[in-house]
Amino acid sequence: MGTLRPPFDSVLDLVGHTPLVALRRITEGLPYRVLVKLEYLNPGGSVKDRIGPAMIADAEAKGLLKPGGTIVEATSGNTGVGLALVAAVKGYHCVFVLPDKMSSEKIRLLRAYGAKVVVTPSQLPPDHPMSHYSVARRLAKEIPNAYYPNQYENPENAAVHYRTTGPEIAAGAGEKLAAVVGTVGTGGTMSGVGRYFKEHHAHVRIVAVDPKGSVLGPAFRTGDPGKVVPYLVEGIGEDIVPKSIDFQWMDEFVEVGDLESFVMARRLAREEGMFVGGSSGSAVVGALRWLEGAPIPAGSTVVVILPDSGDRYLSKFYSDEWMREKGLLEPGAVVGDLLREKQFTPALLSVEPTTIVRDALETLRAHGISQVPVLAGDDNLGSVAEDDLLRASLADGTVADRTVSVALGARFSEVNLDTPVGEVVRRLKEERALLVRDPGTRAVVGLITRHDLLQHFSHHGAGHAL
Q1: Which of 113, 121, 174, 378 is deepest in the core (most CB within 10 A)?
Q2: For the domain that residue 205 is a member of, what is the CATH number?
């Protein structure tokens, strides 16, 4: 147990001085000492707790925010919490604007602090009037006595990490520190930490980790940010190059994907006891990837910054259902895999429009199924279900000897052999079954039902990656 410390004046005094902890199982066999800085142990649960008090103290000193005023900010959630801590302690109101891809936990958390939350559509250009950037700027102008910290341009974003995070890492990591690895969004953390080390310990490499699809990595490498491609990891990457990021303090960029980030976050919880967010998974994946060819000697120490806690992602990547819906639970699984795994029934059972109802019922009963498509060659004409055929036969005794066209139901929707399983999960929430075509020949090759999905997931569980 640590020594007891005197009472603090407020929760803001608990920001910073987060611990460094060694990874054990995940880094087993590596010739390096990998330490992670647990920024999720800040009182608001993320590294952004550092910039909230700093930006507000700066605004107060400059007379930009007066008592009883309102803090308005565009945020992915964590900066909002850091600012909400300050607002609660100092008596400010706050309004936060988030894009709608952010987790419901973040929205509930901000409201729990008393903040008003405005949600805007994701994937809009930054200059669109409904983007979270534009809405925040507009609200800051419309609300009396409002202040817009604007983490994307505020110098205090990087400066507070220069004053605190960088020195903390240097003091705790020891003389063998060779690199600091961290994710980038607004870029404040790695710009401030990078500047500190380049000015005081220039040999330390600064490695930035960016999600695939963000514009920051391309901007660093070529100067051309290109266009953003949607990704799922929250709180890192950008669709613009913020003024708060300063590439001159960074040595390298490593790109990581959604799936590997989420898998690593789940591994950190299960193998290291560290309950972290997806961006922390990104940071560790990026560090391990960089270490594969790192220009540092064996025995060196590497520090990886873990930005936030996992409690705000329970409805997302910590949920198997969410992972399935996004096609991430089993990497690469497609409809063709489901067809190959079908048991007890052929990949495709169908009847022709000239099939007699009696014979169709016999086919259904023989294979223990309740519905089949009606096909003429590869033409999808409709479907018949056992219940519908029985009802029609009971209502009219002659139906059993007539063709299935007398009880023809709606056509099954179609997917291709290469359609991801995640898309199938979404479709089968609303539909009974899906007809499968070969995308090359356009031939009908199978039928997928909810039972086939359950069989797949019961066999593969959470997937080999998880």
Answers
A1: 113
A2: 3.40.50.1100
